[in-house]
Here is the input.
Amino acid sequence: MLKTMRRAFPQTMPVMAGYLFLGIAFGAAMQSRGLPAWQSLLLSTAVYGGSLQFALVDSLCAAFAPLTVALLSALIQARHLFYGLSMLEAYRPLGRHKPYLVFALTDETYSLAVRGVPAGEDPAAWYTAISALDQVYWVAGTLLGAVAGTLLPTGALRGIDFAMTALFTVILTDQTTDAAARFRKGEITLTELLFAPLLGGLATLLSLLTVGRGSFLLPAMGLILAGFGGRYALERKGVKAA
Amino acid sequence: MQQLITIAVAAAVTVVLRALPFLVFSGKRKPPAFVLWLGGQLPRAVMALLVIYCLKDGIAGDAPGLLPAVAAVGTTVALHLWKKQMILSVAGGTLCYMLLVQFAV
Here is the structure.
């Protein structure tokens, strides 16, 4: 496993950079709100989901409301259903390694896992190596942030939580440039290139502007699913007609 | 204790959502073609959703304003198209945002 980890390490370096940075931002954000370091570490170990952890900083400071926390968690984490769906076939035969791989399937680990396994590597060992390395980066970053938060003056880290926005922006930029390259090679259609990101963006904007900040994620995801369902039905009808 | 419960609830919901597709489509039950197709389509849609989710306070609320966020997102995209280095793009965009909200707005 250690040898596999050594070979997997170069591939995980972008995640290491992002996770150390975001982990530090998270640990420092918790610290700046007066929350203890052990809670930051527990969140990064047991929840292990950046966006939700940032959202929980508020919840941990506010009045105790477990149902609200459950709903908030479900809304923010629902996208993981999709990662699971897309890794179903790859993770299906992995036996005893599967529980941890499923637990550790974060946005960033998914972005590495979805690339598949290099030739000659054992899939179970490879996926476990990238998943475990990623979580080590995340927990280590959290710890560094908790320490840094106590050393820096208040306010110096204001705005550091933008790192999460920047990370998602970078991933979307990568996805779009990859798809654009495939479009230029004639491998995919213009619809295939534009449909998913436009649907995701417009559906979310629409429900944010109509429903408001409190509860727009659920209607946004409903719209996205409806949009994909509609397109799938139309294209299948087209195939049958042709 | 209450904070421990809050953390436990968030952890439980997260692991259930991550495991659900594997539980529903375990063993020999193959997911329908639509579900597999959706698995390939959703990542880009969800990433667009997440970017807007992060900007929600600027778009529909009272946060420091949309301008620093839009400027920082623009910086992030420009850096990434230029150098294709994830850490540089994330760090540059974040630094841009921190400078704007701490000193300019």
About this structure: The two ends of chain A are 51 Å apart (CA to CA).
